[in-house]
Amino acid sequence: MDGGVVLDSLWNKRAVLVSGKGGVGKTTLSAAMAVAAARSGRPVLLAELSPDEGGPSTLAGLVGAKDAGAKVVPVRQNLSFVRLSAAEGHRQFLEETLPAKWLAEAALRSRALRRFLEAGPALKEMGLLYQMLTLVRRTHPDGRPLYPLAVLDLPATGHAMALATLPRSLLSLIPGGPIGRAMREGLDLLQDPKRTGVVLTTLPEPLPVSETLSLAKELKDVGLPLSVAVLNRLPEDPFTPESLAALGRLLETHGPHRGQRALERLERAREARQRLQAGTAVPQWGLPDLALTGPALVERLSELLVPTLEEAAHPGGREATP
Amino acid sequence: MNLDAMLRDKRVIVLCGAGGVGKTTTAAALGVAAARAGRHVLVLTIDPARRLAEAMGLKENGPEPTTVPPERLYADGPQGEGRLDVWMLEPRVIFERMVRKLSATESAARAILDHRLYRFLSELVAGVQEYAAAEALDSFLTDGHYDLILLDTPPSRHALDFLEAPGRLARFLDDRVISLFGPDSSRTGRLWQGAQALVGKVLDGVFGGGFAQEMRTFVGAFGGLFAGIRLHTERLRAQLASKDAAFLLVTSPEAAALREATFFKDTLLARGLPFAGYVLNRSWAREDGLAPAANLKPHALNAVDTDAVLALEHLAGVEDARATAHRSLLARLAEGLPLGAMAIAAPDAGADLEDFRGLVHLGEALTVA
């Protein structure tokens, strides 16, 4: 399966979860994927799932979303942005489950209850998950989904796993009632490989790859469908096998010269590719190390992602590795 | 002050930083350096990469710190006075200790530990890792067994989560929240009873009656620990604000480093906590003193050799651009540092860091910087 086909199948899911350890470019990749999907004509909701909702939103800045908050805001054609909020999820949940509206309103006014929902076991993650489910469920009057594709930027790994294991833990805690129902629905969505795909991002270095391989295993254990592994910031490789061998001989005779660090980095990247390929049973994308940052990097990466989608419509084109 | 002096003088060094910046490795290397300089050191770490854990001889889920064998610590020379212990923080173990320590009786402790909800606590309450880190740090600082404790804080997008999380947990265990659930009879105001009745209705409606009742008994049992937890939190805060403590931010050239670094410094200073500076990891800011790639040209014997040298020159150009960017980042980090704080670049050790000798070298490189 080549990159374009993978991308095409990702675009046809309901939820794409972008995960990975911190500092691997996960947020930038989430933004680039959402922009690429929107460019290809699919209405996309880019959602940030951050445990600390108070700080500045990097993701909003990357796609140029103003007023980043718990309400969905349009960003550009086919692209909307939302910063999922536990409090918003709680509000929706209470309104939908409590028998009387006055009760929900009174509940939301209670400071003690708000504090409990903020800090009680798993309730924050539950609120985030609930808001996400509500958004995925939302439809046009004719029944078509309002957001056929949601791209989720998951927080640093620990929390991503917490989110993934949450529905199960909550189900074993509270099997019945409205929470039980909502969590079962969430679990059904997250574990369904037709509707959900996980994109695992890492860097082409030994430690990040080790961590990613164990994360891939954990994802498998909780039943989340891994779709693709992404090696981000791959260094440029100016060698042919012959010239690399020749350089090896020269350096052996004459000692290390400048470029040594870049050379070692390249070697580590090569090993990383092989280890990741051997350790995961999914397609792999390599994204180049570009001398860009912020929104400019997002645009460039999204351009690298879109053409492969078009090539996928014309089999026989060059090998598509976005 | 430089890192060498810090490792000699401080009692606690807290390493903060986003995930994936090499914080654990830095903590380990500094621990090795301090121990080799003669101190009795404890490195507290969370979730170290497997090979790093192996390099340190660290047992997973050990109930007590593991001592790095002296023959490994001093593999290259005579054994010194220093000692290095490492402990992988296991929230479950730390929580259980804390519950036992703070409960008035064994049966009060059992009421918590045996409660069905307890086993979900550590996996479900946000901030448990951070809380466990704070609790362990407080406990080791208080018993005074170690000269120096290096704390590798849990990874977070924002470096200061470690300081916020105990607060979050404390909010959950806030006496007001607890009294909403607990069998509290001391508060009799009409408003309060009204609130309690409301919460009862909401919880029964949302979670079902059985769970709400379970929650009440659990929170009621936990409530007894609250005073103790608050005491620990306050004691630790005082320790961390003292001149015996130092906070370092570990960062990488990527991770939106500058903005995060400035934010970290300002927040620490605003809270009166001792900001000690930045360690820039995975950077090429240090000079490697090698000869230019073009020097190989005369040695190229054929077309393939020439291609090889040209390719290396190209790589050297890429490397140089990257190193220059990293140096200017380091210079900007160094601007506006408070007196005595530092900004140093760790050598880019790449793959070498997964064995103990790599940690020794990194520790040496950091302390002579």
From TrEMBL, chain B:
Pfam families: ArsA_ATPase. It catalyses: arsenite(in) + ATP + H2O = arsenite(out) + ADP + phosphate + H(+). InterPro entries: AAA+_ATPase, ArsA/GET3_ATPase-like, ATPase_ArsA/GET3, P-loop_NTPase. GO terms for molecular function: ATP binding; ATP hydrolysis activity; ATPase-coupled arsenite transmembrane transporter activity. Its EC number is 7.3.2.7. Coiled coil: none annotated. Signal peptide: none annotated. It comes from the Bacteria. Residues 9-273 form the AAA+ ATPase domain. This is arsenite-transporting ATPase. The lineage of its organism: Bacteria, Pseudomonadati, Myxococcota, Myxococcia, Myxococcales.
